[in-house]
Amino acid sequence: MEEYLQNLRSLRSQINDIEEVAAKRSVEEQSQKTAIETLEKDLFSVASETTRLNAESKELEKERAQICGQIFEKQEKISSLENETSTLSQSLELLRQQIVSASEGLQEKRMYFAKIMEDSIFKLQQGHDWLNSYEQKIRTANLVEEHYSPSSEMNLENMRDTMGMSYKKHIAQVESKKAKYEELKARKSELCDENAKSKQLMVELKQKTETFTPALKALDVEALEEEHKALLADEAGELEYLKSLDDQITQLKSVSHGVKCGCGEEYMVELKG
């Protein structure tokens, strides 16, 4: 009986140990199950995050490709703009050279026209002086005829020959002035052609600058327009010179004077063009 009780106590002790071990294992299993569930949630979260990151990565790749394409287009535009800028600079330099050349030519023409104007005024004054002298000689001839004598006839003829030569010389001077006037008209035509070319070049330059940025459009264009306005002002001055010269020559051509000789014959002294 004693042995039975001993065995029973031993069995109970073993059962308690087994229950205790079972309880510990149950706790461990529950803990491991919780850990596994947590890991599964973490894995799902990681998978979702990985999917999201992959999608974002693809979007970033697309954006990167678009940005690279835009950068390439902008580089091409910059290269084209640099070429256009170089062309514009060359055109501006060429236009400056043409303006300088035209200004020098206009200055020379102005000096030439001023000299022609001075000569015309001088020749006109000479024409008036010659007419006064011619009238005085006619009066002298009339006085000589009033006191006619055989010895004075030869002097009268010599005087008429001298006046005729002087008249022819003056006519030759008028013809020379006409030739100079025609030359001035030809130069005026050349000047108008040069101005038309300058205007055309300015129009082409403005059309070309329409495709540029505002900064490029402002590149010396204002100064260029001021120089072109000055060029037009110079041309207007030259046209005034030409008109004044034309008036002087017209006035010179219209000079005429009637002189009646003592012999009864009447002379009309005039400068014909």
UniProtKB/TrEMBL annotation:
Residue ranges of coiled coil: 167-208
PANTHER family with a match to the protein in the record: TROPOMYOSIN (PTHR38353:SF2)
Keywords assigned: Coiled coil
Species for this entry: Dendrobium nobile
Protein's name according to its UniProt entry: Tropomyosin
Domain of life: Eukaryota
